[in-house]
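stuck on this:

***
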Amino acid sequence: MSGAIYMAAAGAMNNKLRLEIISNNIANVNTSGYKEDRINFKGFELINSSDVQEINQNIPKVLLPIALGTKPDFTAGNMQHTGNKLDVALEGDGYFSIKTPDGIRYTRSGNFTLNNEGLLVTQAGFPVLGDGGEIKIADIDDKNFVIDEKGRITVDNKEINSLKIVDFATTNSLKKVGDTLFAMEDPSVSEITPEKIKVKEGFLEGSNVNAVMSMINMIEAIRGYETYQKIIRSIDEVTGKTVNEVGRIG
């Protein structure tokens, strides 16, 4: 089969995946702490790319770009003031620690709440961890409940716990789990204490998705997909004519 049709098919599939990723990013443009997904590509050698080599004999091989999944963009989102005592945002590099049935997970989404037992939890109901374990709060009256810039939680001027905020030397092995949670896949990468971090009570970190650019990229992906479809059809028609007409005895 012509190497050109492999290249066109790969281009169509890449744009299809790109469209799915962009659509999910746009759907989460208002999700607190959401990190935009970006597509990863790797070049694979196209074997027997004779049609390309016929044009230029100096080309020894052709690399076919194939999409291999996504990687989050960890750029910080904009701060949004809410005034809610249980909303907290991080200014600087770091993550809140969350206890889940599958182990410790990490997030930048600080729209926390209290469950029926008085535990500080995420919107999904997972306990938020403090330096002293799970955080239990009896009362969040405006006069006696404070989360300071260091993440220390005080009630009636008495410190009851402190948000466990961690960072990593590298984020290359952080895998997104759901929309706002992350798991560290490399056991050799240890948690470290962030040096420059500030907790802002009554704020949330917004999504880092640029809605305008995402819409532009979506249009490009749709047009790219349609273009590659036309190329595939054209190549198929040429191949059909070659098989059925070239060399036909008149």
